[in-house]
Design goal:
The structure holds 2 protein chains of 2 kinds.
Chain A: H1 3-9, H2 12-17, H3 20-54, E1 58-61, E2 65-68, H4 70-87, H5 96-118, E3 120-127, E4 131-147, E5 156-159, E6 168-171, E7 176-184, E8 187-190, E9 208-211, E10 224-231, E11 234-241, E12 248-252, E13 255-281, E14 288-299, E15 302-309, E16 314-316, E17 319-328, E18 334-342, H6 347-375
Antiparallel strand pairs in A: 1-2, 3-4, 3-18, 4-5, 4-13, 6-7, 7-10, 8-9, 10-11, 12-13, 13-14, 14-15, 16-17, 17-18
Chain B: H1 2-14, H2 41-44, E1 47-50, E2 53-56, H3 57-69, E3 73-74, E4 77-78, H4 79-88, E5 97-100, H5 105-110, E6 119-121, H6 122-125, H7 129-141, H8 149-167, H9 185-190, H10 202-206, H11 209-216, H12 229-247, E7 256-257, E8 266-267, H13 269-276, H14 280-298, H15 301-317, H16 321-328, H17 330-339, H18 341-359, H19 365-393, H20 401-423, H21 427-447, H22 463-496, H23 501-537, H24 545-565, H25 571-595, H26 608-636
Antiparallel strand pairs in B: 1-2, 3-4, 5-6, 7-8
Helix pairs in contact in B: 1-14, 1-15, 3-4, 7-8, 11-12, 13-14, 14-15, 17-19, 18-19, 18-21, 19-20, 20-21, 20-22, 21-22, 22-23, 22-25, 22-26, 23-24, 23-25, 24-25, 25-26
Chain lengths: 376, 637
């Protein structure tokens, strides 16, 4: 044991935090959470299970009983591991495998945290021949506003998830403010109005929104909102619904503004153009053998063709684009959907995996060698 | 060279006169029986495209019979004999009890006597087909998820009968039929048909389509009333040809490859007649099938073999490189089907376990050597089976749920052999026999669900990841299962041999070693799976049920190891932990698939839930009853 380890071991807090018993409890809690979260998916889907069990610090069950979420447990496990590495691990060659394994596990936890805070997942659906540099997020929605009649459209948008109802969204560049009266995370829209309802503006005549329970597949949730839009002391009520394809227009003294509730957009640093989508099935069956999208990646001053297929995504400028799904529209045109992932910590799991696997291999070799020697 | 010889002889035989020795009809009651050929060696070697793979008819026959009856043989005869009857002489299969109806409510609803063996013949079901259709239509109206067991069973039975009936039409083109009856000798001569034939078949007439066409030229300019008897007959024959082609579509048995080289599809004889009969090679292949039908009825073995081999040669000659490669592996597949290597391995492992039980009372040295040798033979056959499957499918050893059972059993037996080489006290032999036997028994049960040599969905079509991630994970499963088996043994040793300290210590060491091995391999497999997911879906981890299952094994093994370091458990507790670890493995392995959610739910199997529940109850009882006894014995030793 090194001197610094002996010094640190005298600190009762560090000594307590480095306890193997804490590690066992944390592992046990993670075991319960993983099992529980898996079973929860059957009725509630993956997204809600992730939010409740794996991304949370604490959650409650049976209405009031608290239980630590995986994020909290992993945080404690991280501290436990750091303390253990500091004062309990024996740093000598024969124990190097164990040390490396634990350093690898620490890297895993770090990569988990980095990924949690930096990952951004969206998707890009393209008809053959079309191109775009904007992808849509799966779960986040935004209110976007732009002025009518501009040659070059400037769109201003707010992520609605960051603003609870009763808040003001200040589109000061356009001179308007939007007060969120009601926000429904998942809703049904109706063209009939309640008797006491205020007059509202909507593109397709929606007059009422009603809250609906969350869908198992979160991408099926369609939010809606009622807001008061104010420009120079003139206010108007507006209803926006996630299921609408066209924006709603409001006139203020002859000047038109378009409002739309849409999936949050991610601006990509390149344009993706779908040249061809190919799907192969095993002969005489409906079992898919491969999906492929031939795309052109266009950056300022350059372009290249890339074939995206299952297990072979396109990697460009910190983005990964992979084949997610496909569809055929009513006109028989093929639509390819590419999932777009931006993850600053992408490399970390690879580093962690390499360290841990190296440690495991080392440890196993040392153990096997030691046993052989002992037998001799 | 031989291929061309058969093809040439086959083509020559096409032009020889062929007459059925007996008259017959498709599925109607026939008082005649075909003479049949004795050997179907050439027939079972014919290729067919089924479920995306070109396979021998031998495999296909077993698969279809399994689908109908839940068995691979009929009256102790290979399924291919039944399939030959069904294709060439369908009426003779009417009394074969091949339709498995699991639920007794269905025969009762159909007004049929319930059979003890739950299998019914077409002749028994035929009078109630309308009622069955009615029930199937009602069941079909219900959403798939809402259907109860009886409704599902009705639909399954109905679809099987529908398929059976379709099979009976597969070779109708070869049978003489009243639609093609010609009595006028002059017309027979004009059409260049054999004069002394009693009747003509569709295929006899369609070969004369060009002559018929020339005879009909200009007929449209005159009124029907003005047509003579000859013209009327020519028109009727042509009309019947068209209506037969139009109505005989979508039948099973895709045994003829399309001539379109861009199209990988294979078609049934009727479909190919409808689409590509203009090609001479296709005409020949259809005529080979016609010949096989006739010679099957007439019991002419040599001629039947020549026709079958000529068909195979013709198909092989125009096969793509990939198809030809598949055809070249038929010998291996036929051998694999015939020898049943895993069945023999299972038998040997079972026998060794019985020898172990015998050794508890009578334990000479030769008994251990004999057992070890039998394990050696078992693993040789087991490995051979695995290698054959890999060669046939050109892919890594583990790619579907069935193969995981085979492979985990294989690794378990290997682990046992290594342990026995070190320990030499039956521990390894028990591990090998129990792991091999249990896994091959589960595999045998699972194989009853269908073809185990199926194709893979797009995301699994990656040999590199399949051979790294899946193999690592399954080796991890095997390691943890072996630790569990030794865990059982440790608990029993504590009860029956508490004073044999050395034995207990060595067994405990083996649990640590195998569980550590299982943990390492599962961890490695999980990490490789993460990398695969990152490569395919752009994310390393997504909390998918199957990923969670692998994580549960890693977590459980880590808990057991760290609980030992924390001195919360002793060797007996460690053994109990390893036994419980097997339950975690079972959950991760196929329990997760029962949930039917997530990206990995491709291996869904419904019948396994109850077995899993019984297994968990057994383990809990084992631990609850024997672990306290073992603890007490340890204290009192």
């Amino acid at each position: 044991m090194f001197d610094f380890q002996k010094q640190l071991a005298k600190n009762p807090i560090i000594k307590f935090l480095s306890s193997v018993k804490i590690a066992v409890v944390c592992l046990g809690l993670l075991f319960i959470l993983t099992l529980w979260g898996t079973l929860f998916q059957v009725d509630h889907g993956l997204y809600l299970a992730q939010e409740k069990f794996f991304n949370s610090l604490v959650f409650t069950f049976l209405g009031f009983v608290p239980f630590p979420g995986a994020r909290l447990v992993m945080g404690v496990l991280f501290i436990n591991l750091v303390c253990m590495c500091l004062i309990r691990l024996v740093y000598r060659w024969s124990n190097a495998g164990i040390v490396i394994i634990h350093i690898g596990l620490l890297t895993f936890l770090i990569s988990g945290f980095v990924t949690f805070y930096t990952v951004n997942e969206s998707n890009l659906s393209l008809i053959e021949g079309a191109g775009s540099n904007v992808s849509s997020l799966y779960h986040d929605w935004e209110i976007s506003v732009w002025r009518e009649g501009q040659e070059k459209r400037d769109v201003y948008a707010f992520n609605v998830n960051e603003y609870s109802q009763g808040k003001d969204l200040d589109f000061s560049s356009l001179g308007i403010s939007v007060f969120l009266k009601n926000y429904y995370s998942n809703s049904n829209a109706y063209t009939t109005a309640d008797e006491k309802a205020e007059a509202v503006i909507n593109n397709v005549g929606i007059k009422t929104l009603r809250l609906r329970s969350f869908d198992k597949a979160p991408e099926k949730n369609l939010p809606g909102l009622i807001a008061e839009v104010t420009l120079k002391e003139e206010s108007k009520n507006i209803i926006l619904y996630g299921g609408e394809s066209d924006p709603t227009k409001i006139d203020f003294n002859g000047e038109g503004y378009f409002f739309q509730l849409r999936r949050e957009k991610e601006q990509l640093p390149f344009v993706i153009k779908l040249k061809d989508f190919m799907m192969e099935v095993h002969p005489n069956t409906q079992i898919a053998r491969s999906y492929k999208s031939l795309v052109e990646v266009i950056t300022p001053g350059a372009s290249r063709e890339v074939l995206i297929s299952m297990n072979k995504p396109l990697r460009a400028k910190n983005y990964t684009l992979y084949q997610a799904s496909y569809a055929v529209d009513q006109m028989g045109r093929e639509i390819s959907t590419l999932a777009v992932v931006r993850n600053s910590g992408r490399i970390l799991p690879y580093v962690a995996s390499s360290i841990t696997c190296f440690g495991l291999a080392w440890h196993f070799l040392v153990m096997a060698f030691r046993r052989k020697k002992r037998r001799k | 060279m031989l291929k061309k010889v058969f093809l040439t002889i086959g083509i020559l035989t096409i032009f020889t006169k062929l007459v059925f020795a007996q008259s017959f009809c498709a599925l109607e009651e026939s008082k005649f029986d075909p003479k049949r050929v004795e050997s179907l060696k050439a027939f079972r070697n014919l290729p067919i495209l089924d479920q995306g793979r070109i396979k021998p008819l031998d495999t296909y026959a077993a698969h279809i019979l399994l689908q109908f009856s839940g068995r691979r043989t009929l009256n102790k005869k290979n399924a291919v004999y039944w399939l030959a009857d069904l294709i060439f002489a369908p009426a003779s299969t009417q009394k074969d009890k091949i339709f498995l109806i699991n639920n007794p409510d269905i025969p009762e609803a159909l007004g049929i006597d319930v059979q003890e063996k739950r299998r019914y013949s077409f002749a028994q079901l035929n009078p109630s087909l309308n009622k069955l259709l009615e029930l199937a239509q009602s069941a079909d109206q219900i959403e798939e998820k809402e259907r109860d067991v009886v409704e599902q069973e009705i639909l399954r039975v109905y679809r099987n009968i529908e398929l059976y009936i379709q099979f009976t039409y597969v070779t109708t083109f070869a049978f003489p039929h009243p639609d093609f009856m010609i009595t006028d000798k002059e017309i027979i001569k004009e059409l260049n048909l054999p004069e002394d034939q009693k009747g003509y078949s569709f295929v006899d007439i369609i070969q004369k389509a060009d002559i018929l066409q020339s005879k009909l030229n200009g007929l449209d300019k005159s009124k029907i009333d003005a047509w003579g008897d000859k013209e009327r007959l020519y028109f009727t024959l042509t009309n019947n040809l068209f209506s037969w082609v139009a109505s005989n579509r979508g039948f099973p048995l895709n045994i003829i490859a399309s001539i379109d080289t861009d199209d990988e599809a294979w078609l049934s004889p009727w479909d190919i007649i409808g689409q590509e009969f203009y090609d001479e090679r296709i005409q020949n292949e259809i005529l080979f099938i016609r010949n096989m039908t006739v010679y099957y009825w007439n019991g002419k073995q040599l001629e039947f073999n020549i026709a079958a081999k000529a068909l195979r040669s013709s198909l092989k000659e125009r096969a793509s490189v990939k198809e030809e490669k598949n055809l070249g592996k038929f010998g291996q597949e036929l051998f694999y089907n015939k020898v049943k290597l895993f069945g023999w391995s299972k038998l040997l492992y079972g026998l060794v376990f019985l020898l172990y039980l015998l050794s508890l009372f009578f334990n000479p040295r030769w008994l251990r050597i004999l057992s070890f040798s039998l394990i050696g033979v078992g693993i040789f056959l087991h490995s051979f089976g695995l290698i054959l499957r890999m060669s046939i499918l050109s892919r890594p050893p583990v790619s579907n749920l069935y193969e995981t059972f085979i492979f985990v059993g294989f690794i378990g037996v290997i682990c046992g052999i290594i342990i026995e080489c070190i320990n030499k006290r039956w521990v390894g032999i028990v591990v090998s026999s129990v792991s091999g036997l249990a896994m091959l028994m589960i595999a045998g049960k699972y194989s009853a669900e269908g073809d185990t040599l199926g194709m893979l969905v797009a995301v699994l079509n990656s040999n590199f990841w399949l051979s790294t991630h899946v193999i690592s994970i399954t080796i991890g499963y095997a390691g943890c299962c072996v630790a569990g088996v030794i865990g059982h043994l440790y608990v029993l040793q504590n009860i029956f041999k508490p004073k044999d300290k050395e034995l207990l210590k060595s067994t405990h060491q083996f649990i640590i070693g195998t569980l550590g091995f299982g943990l390492t391999m599962t961890f490695l497999g999980t990490v490789l799976g993460g990398i695969w997911a990152d490569q395919s879906w752009g994310r390393f981890w997504g909390w998918d049920p199957k990923e969670n299952g692998a994580l549960l094994i890693v977590l459980w093994s880590a808990i057991v190891f760290h609980a030992k370091i924390a001195k919360w458990i002793k060797p007996l507790g460690f053994a109990v932990g390893s036994i419980l670890g097997v339950i975690v493995v079972m959950w991760a392995w196929f329990g997760v698939n029962l949930l039917g959610v997530g990206l990995h739910s491709y291996g869904f199997t419904s019948g396994i839930a109850m077995s899993l529940l019984f297994y968990v109850i057994f383990e809990i009882l084992f631990i609850a009853i024997l672990a306290p006894i073992a603890k007490k014995r340890l204290k009192t030793k």
